[in-house]
Task: structure prediction
Amino acid sequence: MDKPRIGLLGTGPWAEHTHAPALAAHAGIEFSGVWGRRPEAAAALASAHGTTAHSGEVGLDALFAASDAVAFALPPDVQAPLAARAAAAGCHLLLDKPVATTVRGAREVADAVASAGVASVVFCTLRYAGATAAWVDEQAAKGGWFTAHAQWLGALYAPGESSPYAESPWRREKGGLWDVGPHALSALIPTLGDVASVTAVRTEPDLTHLVLRHEPGAASTVTLSLSAPKAGAGAGVELRGEHGVAVLPGEWGSALDSFGTAIDALLESARTGAPHACDVRFGLRLTEILAEAEAQVEAQAEVEAQAEAEAEAGA
Result:
């Protein structure tokens, strides 16, 4: 690809503030267009960045035809079927995390990518931010880690907070497990190994605890929420092992810069044919782990509801 053409699916805040500006500013690509479910939103975002607007089924096919790759800024379970369709049309994929919130949906994307022979990258932010990406690579190369703790505590739904991302229906429904869980796993899996088993417990509001057993034997804990008090919000990873203690850098840099690095990673994978470490297969693995955790949380809720009903009946 001489100057690859990359289109964008999505017109929400994440697309407006990160994806579209990064695509428009990238000197190595042509920003080939914006597709949105709302024609007026697609037109506004495309106009702001000097590209073409698309909407509807015809517009979707037109954007695929005009693009060598497409980036996604859509809810995960809207993203997944459209990503499979884009891969079948021969487009490389720059996916958002999570790829999907069902294993079936994520697997369909992974299968479509494999069948089409296209490249894929999943945008787990800290894997592309300069300082944090280097830290993950360094700790993975060291090895010898015994245990770790990760916490991603957002205040998106804390009292008094207002954020455009809080208006996202899928985030409100799925909570921190699915929105910030991929970030934690994207640091823990490369450094401690794949997850062999997960145990999940949730307390309200939206506070999920995971205990992970990694292969070949390390263990980690993860705490996730989008409803933490503002004063108690924060994110971090701490590793402990034969090298001592390693702490994830607190400065992540600009999301625009990180997305630009993700674009570079996709272009490199497409050029060389070498899969990226954070590709759709990794995205599928994240979905498998989070889906198992969600199933445990839902089973826990059913047991508690049954116990409460029995207690009320016996009162």
User: Anything to note?
Assistant: The chain has two domains: 5-126+256-279, 130-250. The radius of gyration is 20 Å.
